[in-house]
TrEMBL record:
One of its GO terms (molecular function) is peptidase activity. Pfam families: Zn_protease. Residues 9-146 form the Retropepsin-like aspartic endopeptidase domain. This is ATP-dependent zinc protease. The lineage of its organism: Bacteria, Pseudomonadati, Pseudomonadota, Gammaproteobacteria, Pseudomonadales. It comes from Pseudomonas mangrovi. It comes from the Bacteria. Keywords: Hydrolase, Protease. PANTHER family: ATP-DEPENDENT ZINC PROTEASE DOMAIN-CONTAINING PROTEIN-RELATED, ZN_PROTEASE DOMAIN-CONTAINING PROTEIN. GO terms for biological process: proteolysis.
Length: 154
């Protein structure tokens, strides 16, 4: 049996933060079947700032208590995604830092309407690879909630 001591173990669900967007205390579901991570967003509006493509959107946080957070960030691309039910749609892609446990690294998120989903964030396999994470699906909330200072750094 091989072991992977150089990788961090996470559970099927984890607490995360998106410090560059000013978002903390967000529950994420880990989805190894999805390549790209996804964030629940509405009111998505692309615009230009200093000749660069940007996007503003409302991030929806929480499931029992609905919280909304208005965000603006650079737009990475527009990507065609095929959902698990076979539906194809174009989604805006952003790149922002992800805080999970005591680590922070940049990942890409597609912005999508996830209002009918239990979790407002899915972390896909690219985020897991970049974070050097392995998933034990029998566990939940293995890592501590990220603690962020006012500057967003840990």
């Amino acid at each position: 049996m091989k072991t992977f001591d150089h990788l961090t173990v996470i559970g099927l669900r984890e607490w995360i933060a998106l410090p560059e967007l000013g978002i903390v205390g967000l529950r994420a579901k880990i989805d190894t079947g999805a390549s790209t991570s996804s964030l629940h967003a509405s009111d998505i509006q692309p615009f230009e700032r200093d000749g660069q493509r940007w996007v503003r959107f409302t991030a929806h946080l929480g499931t029992l208590v609905q919280r909304r957070h208005r965000c603006e960030t650079e737009l990475v691309s527009l990507k065609t995604i095929r959902s698990s039910n076979g539906q194809v749609q174009s989604r805006y892609v952003i790149r922002t830092s992800l805080a999970l446990g005591d680590r922070v690294w940049p990942i890409e998120f597609t912005l999508a309407c996830r209002k009918s989903m239990r979790y407002r964030v899915l972390l896909g396999s690219k985020a897991l690879i970049d974070g050097r994470l392995v998933v034990n699906p029998a566990l939940l909330y293995v890592q501590d909630k990220p603690i962020l200072t006012l500057s967003g750094a840990q």
